[in-house]
Amino acid sequence: PSAIKDIVLELPETRWTDIGGQQDVKQKLKEAVEWPLRHPEVFHRLGGQPRKGLLLYGPPGCSKTLTAKALATEAGLNFIAVKGPELLNKYVGESERAVRELFRKARAASPSIIFFDEVDALGLNREDGGHNGSGNSTGVLTALLNEMDGIEELGNVMILAATNKPEVIDPALLRPGRLDYILYVGPPDHPSRVEILSIKFAKMRLGADVDIQTLASRTESYSGADLVKICDEAVLAAMRENLEIESVNWRHFEEALQGVKSVITDEMVRRY
Ligand code: ATP
Description:
The protein is of the alpha/beta class.
């Protein structure tokens, strides 16, 4: 039996167009990952070396996971997602086995992406050998580094990791040939909030008094996830008012704005 309950192969259906804003991140990933895969002859002729590992960092709810999924969809890669803390199994040796199993599956499914969310969990508490209740992180990290260093001969497996605590990532993970391409995925500015809201609005039935620009102005320092939550709360507010209601109106957004507060703080953004 596998040490991680569910190493599942996913076929994400997220497209670049499902992500509002983040033009720069999208473009960089297209270039670094899609181009070499789509035009291998040109890339090799010019002497390019494919990226193996990438780190996305930034505040919560700002589309790191969406980005990883869109990259898999758009570049035609199989997708395996795992959360850092899931790998820290309390039985000695189990976690290392899980890491090897993960890479074995990814190689079998290549070309593929392994997405490590909350990868910072693997770098914590290395000094005390990980014997502090958070699991055996040293062993997992070593196993992970070994697998990553071996990727070259082992086929077309790419590693994508995400964190909102880049400062606690073990530096060994960031060395050349490992997670050596680092991209900041930040909170949305006004035009990006409009884009995110219009993606969401396209699926909603809205009253004529709902103004997207006003909502974008009222949601400074909200994450993409917060914006989606506001829209869903507005739907509930409308239903609460009247189950026969035809559309979600501005008053429902007002109500939703009361309930959903931004999770991104100033310090959070300044920290990056
Ligand atoms: P965490 O650090 O908490 O894991 P994350 O950065 O990985 O967060 P996602 O899981 O990608 O964030 O985003 C959460 C949800 O928020 C998405 O499923 C989507 O509904 C919405 N969302 C966030 N950013 C955007 C965006 N730029 N465009 C559209 N939807 C977004």
